[in-house]
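A note from the maintainers: we've had questions about how concatenated examples are separated. There is no special marker in the raw files; a new sequence line simply starts the next protein. For clarity in this README we add a label.
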Amino acid sequence: MVNPAATQEVKMEIIPVSDTIRQVIASNTLLTANHPWYIDGWVYVANEATLRVEAGAVVNILPTAVNKQDGRHSGGLVITRGAYILAEGTTTLPIRITVEKAPDPGPSGLLILGRAPVKKGYTPFRDLTFGGNLAEDSSGVIRHLHLHYSPAAGKGFRGGLLLLGAGSKTITEAIVTHALPTAGPGLKGGKLR
């Protein structure tokens, strides 16, 4: 008789030693709810890694990346194509992401770059690759998320949550964005349900 547990794939996760995360997350990573986390500038989840965020976790984005063209400060999490986010808060323990105030805020927040078809070209940032031919692609699951940010001035992506080429198996539920002035999440292309 075969033990069913022996046939399941075991995914190892690391818990970062430092509470401040910089540059790239290239292996399966867990952000626990036992203390706040800090995202310094733009952090990319890459290499088909999974970022798991526990219910009740607090993540603070430090907008330290300076745009060379306009001098505005920005930062956030970018889930690249093939990478995955698993952020399942609950009604009583939502996940909270807050973009800290910057002197001249640029667009900051959470970007999901999927592999689903995109009809019209849209490039909110240079060097971001998204879209493809996988309509049922999954970039992850986000439930019960509260996202606080100050929108950047101008047109295009002003901050918050942006899904680009997200596939139909990407799940987003009960996401609340808090912005002054009010702005909502953006979605370009893909087959998100």
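[label: protein 2]
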Amino acid sequence: MNTAPFPSLMPPQLPVVLHSQQLFRDRREILIEHAGETYRLRLTSNNKLILTK
């Protein structure tokens, strides 16, 4: 038995894709503010991403 009052009529939304080049431009590090906290996203010398609080 379906207990939801109405079936979902909206199709699920696809996630937004952001390319790292758009975020970093010519930098190796950016800051991201989320819920009152600041996070640091770094691009390593091995081309990996590290997110720290």
